[in-house]
Design goal:
Shape: elongated
Helix content: 40-55%
Strand content: 5-15%
Order of helices and strands: HEEEHHHH
Number of helices: 5
Amino acid sequence: MSFSRTTRAMSKMLASWKWLLSFRKPDWRADDYPIRVTKQEPDAAFSAPRFSQHRYRAYIVNGAIAGSGDTPIEAMAGLKQNFESVTRRRREEGLPSIRPGKNWPVEFASQEKVSADESLSEDFIHKVLGLDWAWISDESSLWDFHTEQTNDLLLTKIRDVYGIDVSDVESARLWEILERIKRHKTSEHDHSS
């Protein structure tokens, strides 16, 4: 998403103003942050029925938190809900609050589970997802790699490539699928010995 020079300047001024105001109190709510609400145009890449496209997006300037809705009020409500979720998680992890107006750090989801067997992960990315490479995390799922209504095509590929049915993995999280494939390969190996 690109912004005009005027929009960037206004956002920078808003962030500076909210930063100055943040020194008046020690704890901050979503309303204390520099927030912009924009109207969005539908994106043809997400025209599949499983995607809901909203007309408005509310976001924190310099932050990675946003919300969307069919009205500006709905977008703000989504933003506040996401803000509460992120700040609660940061508190639980012992991380400090981010001062309004400051840049939020980029945070990546853990890769601990999905990287337990790197060669299997790479093989899966090539043979099932059909990609040369992909950054996947413990939060990644089959849904992240297509726009179809169901995961059926990828589930069929998994069955063809690895000889295992993982359609009962409700979350469709890649780490759970990779773990199941690894167990299946181990039990196959044990039975053939």
